[in-house]
Design a protein that fits this description.
Helices cover 61% and strands 10% of the residues. The chain is mainly α. Strand 1 and strand 2 form a beta hairpin.
Length: 406
């Protein structure tokens, strides 16, 4: 590692912050990564002042919040995975973890995943990097829903709006990536002229969609989003809410919040899935989102309910299988939209080829629907791992206080 550090002390009243500027290179064999970083370390004063200074500096320069240390970057580079996607880490939430601490651990980990993959996306158009950035966004938004009962309305609404914007900017690129992955590699020499033209149109659309995604992660809005969310997680107004219920959720064990929230998500999914084969595409999409939210919650809080590990494993396996089937159905619905977007208003041979490709990708939709319905049946037979032995989730005392999850 060849890095030069310059250090200054920023002082205002009782506040002292060490400001360090690092420039240089991280070198691993014939691979290297540029270092151009500024670190802020609080020496005295309130943690809030770190973010005050960070916002002042960000207003003067295009600074992006980063969580990956130079050592971590060096290890990744040495391991030949300098541009490999960053995946979610197992969050250490146990039965005695306080609600406030659990929220910070889970939200912080999701933000790290978002920021890290955003940096990598600017180095390579890697579909897995884009996917993992979207996974980080979904995990963050699931965390917002789960912890809604203890969060301040202004911070919650801002976090939801900004992450929804970012997810929207990434969605087109991801949808086309999935279409091309499902279609498989093609040798255009052996294809019909129409099919070759259709895939060329798709790749043009893919390039344009990635430019949209890159414009988003390079934007001032994204830089502001990362810093604002980081500040909210660490020192946001939610930590000072005086309402007794919110205070108890913050200070009490996370199980007091997690159990009722997962109860509600689980009951809703079981109830709405009973007539699965009779609902339309939009309702299936909503069920998929509900299943995904519950799966994230089970991942967040699995270790907080250690009493029934085998039951938890069965629950997670059933939920994963269900989500896989629902994901296949969603991919089919998206495939139609992707093909229409690539073809546009053009007709003739190109549109015919697009229709044939969509037909090939969605030809077994009825079988997948049946498989999804069977997955729901299997899921409804498993017991929630956070409830008492022998008690079905539907039979839990309705008078028990519950948190609303949206």
């Amino acid at each position: 590692m060849e890095v030069e550090r310059r250090t200054h002390i920023w002082a205002r009243g009782r506040t002292k912050i060490e400001v360090s500027f690092d420039t240089g290179l991280i070198v691993a064999g014939d691979r290297q990564d540029v270092v151009a970083e500024m670190e802020l370390e609080l020496l005295a004063g309130s943690p809030q002042t770190l973010f005050v200074l960070a916002r002042e500096l960000q207003a003067k320069a295009a600074l992006t919040l980063s969580f990956e240390s130079k050592a971590e970057r060096g290890y990744r580079l040495a391991g030949h995975d300098g541009v490999a996607a960053l995946k979610a880490q197992n969050t250490a939430v146990g039965p005695k973890t306080r609600g406030a601490t659990a929220f910070q651990l889970i939200a912080r980990d999701a933000l790290v995943q978002i920021a890290g993959n955003a940096r990598l996306l600017q180095r390579a158009h890697n579909p897995d990097v884009l996917h993992q950035m979207r996974v980080g966004l979904r995990r963050f938004r699931a965390c917002l829903s789960v912890f809604k009962g203890m969060l301040d309305a202004e911070g919650l609404n801002t976090a939801r709006a900004e992450t929804k914007w970012l997810a929207g900017e990434l969605s087109a690129a991801r949808d086309i990536d999935v279409f091309l992955q499902r279609a498989g590699t093609t040798d255009e020499i052996d294809e019909s002229a129409g099919r070759a033209a259709f895939f060329r149109a798709l790749r043009i659309a893919q390039a344009e969609a990635y430019e949209t995604a890159l414009a988003a992660v390079r934007s001032e809005r994204f830089r502001t989003l990362l810093l604002r969310l980081g500040e909210w997680i660490e020192v946001g107004a939610w930590k000072r809410l005086a309402n007794d219920e919110q205070r108890l959720l913050r200070e009490g064990p996370v199980t007091a919040l997690a159990g009722p929230v997962m109860d509600r998500l689980d009951r809703r999914l079981r109830h709405r899935s009973r007539k699965f084969l009779d609902i339309d595409v939009a309702a299936r999409h909503d069920l998929r989102k509900q299943a995904k939210k519950l799966r994230y919650a089970a991942a967040f809080f699995g270790e907080a309910f250690p009493k029934h590990p085998k039951r938890r494993q069965r629950f997670v396996v059933a939920l994963r299988a269900l989500q896989d089937r629902l994901g296949e159905l969603n991919d089919m619905a998206v495939a139609r939209a992707v093909a229409m977007g690539a073809v546009g208003r053009r007709s003739g041979e190109l549109a015919f080829a697009a229709g044939l490709e969509v037909g090939r990708l969605t030809g077994d939709e009825d079988q997948v629907l049946d498989a999804a319905d069977e997955a729901f049946r299997t899921y409804r037979k498993v017991k929630p791992f956070w409830s008492s032995p022998g008690v079905r989730n539907e039979d839990l005392n309705p008078s028990r206080p519950r948190l609303r999850s949206v």
